[in-house]
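Form 7-S
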Amino acid sequence: MLKEQKNRNSKDANRIYPIKAFRDIDQVYEPDFGNIDEAFVQKIWNTQRFINADLLSIDGKEVRVLKPGVWNREAGPDFMHAEIELNGKLLVGDVEIHVKASEWYTHKHHLNSRYNRVVLHTVFYNDDFNLRTRLQNGKRISTLELLKWIDAPIGDLYDETHQEETQAADFCRVTGQRLDLEKLKQVFESLGTERFLEKADAIRLLRTRLDFEQILYEGIMEALGYTQNSKPLRELSQRVPYADFDHKSAEEIQAILFGVAGLLPSQTDKPLSDIEKEDPFVVTLEKLWYTSKRTVEAKGMDATQWHFGRIRPFNYPTRRIAAMSQLIHKSNGSLMMYFLPTCEKAAMEDTTSFLRNIRKELLNLLMLEPEGYWETHANFGKGGTQKAKLIGEARALDILVNKVLPVAYIWAVESESKKLQDAILNIYSSSTKLQANRIISQIESQIFSEAQQMRLITPTAQIQQGTIRLYKNYCADQLCDLCPILENNAVLFNENSV
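Output:
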C-alpha cells in the first residue's frame, strides 16, 4: 500500500508525495492470490518446480517426493498413485492440491470418503488453518506448503506455465495435415471404448465399498449438476444414502433431500411471499422435514454451497433435486432394476434400428415430466419453467453414456454375462453425439480443417469420448510422440512435411 504525506520541505506545501509502506520484519508474508489458482499450483507439483530436498511438512515431518502421481483431470484427488516418503516411511496413494490449506475444509473433503486415499495435502500457501489435515475416516495427514520451496520466482513460474499452455495449444503435428478419415474414425472409436472401460474400472473399485444402487445414485446426482452444482449434488447423495428412501413417499423423499440440502424455504435467507408460504406443497414439505428424524440426526448442508447465478431456471439445483426425487420414487427401491431390463433387451439383437429403439427407451426413463409444484416452478417461489422436462434429452443422453451404461457393464461383468457386456457396449457405440464441450471443440479445431471437418466422420458419443481421452491422455501432457493419430497412420503427410 502507498501512504500519502505532505512534504513540508517543499516550496509547494500543498504537494502530495507517495511514501511506500515497507513490510515489518516480523510481518507474515501472504502472496497476492489474484493470479494464483489451483491449476497453477497443480502445474508446479506436476513439473516438480520445487527443491525436492530437505522438505518439511508444516507439522515438521521430512518429506521426499518419489513420484508426483498421475494427474487426475476427473472428479476426485488431483494426483493419483503418488509415492511419498514421510519421515523415511513410504506412502503410496493420492495427493490433493489447493492454493490455501483451509480449502480442504472449504471444499468439504473432510466429509468425502473419496479422499481417504490422500497421503499428502499439498498447498501453495499455509494460512495457518490446521497443522494436520483430517480425512473423512478420521485419519490425519501432513500438509506440505510449496511456497517455501519453489525453485524460481513466482512471476517466472507463472509466465512459464502460461507460455507452455499457449505453445501446446498452438502446436500440433496433426494440425493442417490431410487426414485418412476412415483410420481417424477408428482411432477415435478405439479411444472412446478405452475411456468407457476406464470409467467401468473406476466403478469396479467403488464396488469394494458401495453397492450398485448407491454408485448409480451418486453418479446420476453428480451428472445432474453440470459444472456448478455437481459437487454439492454428489455430497448430498453421500449424506443421504439411496437405502434411506426405502418405502418413502414422493413428498417424503423431496422433504429429506431439500432439508439436508438446506434449500427449504424456511432454511434460506430469502423469505417467500405469504401466498407462496401457504402453498399446500410447501407446507407439506416443511412439516415432513421438521417431523423427520433427519432434522436431529444429520448435519445439513448450507444454502451457500448451491449455485443459482448465471444458470437457466431449467437447470436450478432445486429442479435437479426434484428430478432425482421423482426418479427415486419411480425406481421402486432399485435404480438398477429401473434401467437394467431395458439394457438386457439389447442382447437379443444388435441391428441399428433395434439399438436405436433401446436407446430411446432408456432416455425416456430419464426424461421426466415435471409433476405438481415443479410444473410451474424452478425454485421455491420462483416460476419460469413452462412445464419443461425435469431432465432434458441432452442431459439424459449424457447420464446414460457416462453413468448408467458403465455401471450396467460392471453388473454384467460380475454376472459373468459376456452377452450382456457386448450388448451394453453396442448401446454405447451406437449412441448419438452429446453436447460439445470445451475439450471436444478444442480437439475439433486442432485436428480438422475447412476441407476435412469433423462431421465427415459422423461424430457419435463414442467418438466424442475418444477426443476427450486423446486430449487428457496425450495433448494435455504434450505426449506428441505417442499420439494415437500418428501411431495409426491416420495422417497423410505432405511431401514437404517434417
